[in-house]
Amino acid sequence: MKEKVIFIFLMTFFGFAHVSSVHTVDSLTIIPQVEGYHLTPALKVREQSRIYVGGDITGAVSIQANTKIVRVLLAGDEEMSSESWGLWGQTLTWDNYAKEQVAYASWELDNKFDVVLHVATVTTYQSDNSYGISPALLDDAVRKLNFRTPMIFNGVWVDILVVFSDSRYADIELAGVAYDNGIDPHTGNPCAACMIKPQRDDSTNMNLGWTDMNLVQHEISHFYGAPDHIDESYPHYNDDCIMSYRYVYVTTLFKYGYYITINDWIPLTYATNNYCSDCYETINSNRTKYGYVNPPPLFPSANEISTGGGNNGTPKPW
Fold it and tell me: Domains along the chain?
């Protein structure tokens, strides 16, 4: 089967794409989906060069009267936390690397939906390497952290769970997984949890850095009801949407102050931060689903702790 794809020179500092010509490519790997989960394909690419031309947006969020502040529990497994990670020429500890990725995703969600991601607390855990696919790895993290939405963890309120895992036993075809609509598929309870597997250069095995911020934005979008656009049978598959798995040929990507030379086919998920009209309307209509309007009560009250929300792993509904 042949798929139409667009050969593009992408300029994504503000998500703009410029089309130069149309080509076709043989169908590439389509990830079989699992009910209750959203599975994102891995990126197999060799980054050819990266040139810094200026500009940085981390921390540049705008808190307005109606801004929804979503409190994030950030977790890393033992493989993730045992390594250093590169981003824009810097070497970071796993937690600072993950915070940076969340900050970029937060910038995009703030500009589009007035939703800000705030890392409220960070933790590590021991993942079960007997699990060979990412859905099981996400389930493993949720069980070990006893996560529910919302809950008190480490003495602070959290709304969503973002796990970074570098498990070598995870499915190499997968880069991310999220619970559909923020619901635990096993219990039916609110559980806005997702997992990110940092993407690596296919030739050097060094982590790429610029890919994972898109993964965070993509997976969190599932919590607000945005669906994957897996193939041409899905509406808006051919639109400029971060939820689309359509393969596009990217020569150079301009991203947050960097020119990144790729010259390869990659899923659109990694190449844009925009949404199609349906995904935009879906997320925007659900933007109040998580978090507080500024200022949020980060720490629980004495009454909230005394009425069942005081221990890690003990959910307390609003």
Answer: 2-311 (3.40.390.10)
Cβ atoms < 10 Å from Cβ of 100 = 20
Question: pLDDT by residue (tens digit) across 195-222?
Answer: 999 988 878 888 888 899 999 999 999 9
Q: Is-contact 282 223, C-beta < 8 A?
A: no
The residue ranges of DSSP E strands in 126-227, in sequence order, are 151-153, 156-158, 160-164, 174-179, 193-196
Structure tokens at 234: 């899905």
Residue 72 CA to residue 118 CA, distance in Å, equals: 6
Given a contact cutoff of 8 angstroms between Cβ atoms, the answer to whether 102 and 120 are in contact is no
Looking at residue 27, what is its pLDDT?
Answer: 41
Average confidence score pLDDT of the chain: 78
Q: Can you name the residues that pair with 119 across neighbouring β-strands?
A: 72
pLDDT at 276 over 50: yes
Strands 37-41 and 174-179, bridge-based pairing: antiparallel
Query: Which token pair is 112?
Result: 């589009």
**Class of residue 116 by CB neighbours under 10 A (exposed 0-12, middle 13-18, buried 19+):** buried
Structure-model confidence comparison of residues 3 and 188, the more confident one: 188
| DSSP-based three-state secondary structure for 91 | strand
pLDDT at res. 107 = 92
Q: Comparing 95 with 173, which gets the higher pLDDT? A: 95
Nearest to 46 by CA among 154, 220, 260, 202: 202
Helices marked H in 114-246 — which ranges? 134-145, 212-223
> In a 10 Å sphere around its CB, with 0-12 CB exposed, 13-18 middle and 19+ buried, how is residue 302 labelled?
exposed
C-alpha to C-alpha distance for 288 and 225, rounded to whole angstroms: 12
Please state whether beta strands 90-93 and 160-164 pair in parallel, antiparallel, or not at all (unpaired). Answer: unpaired
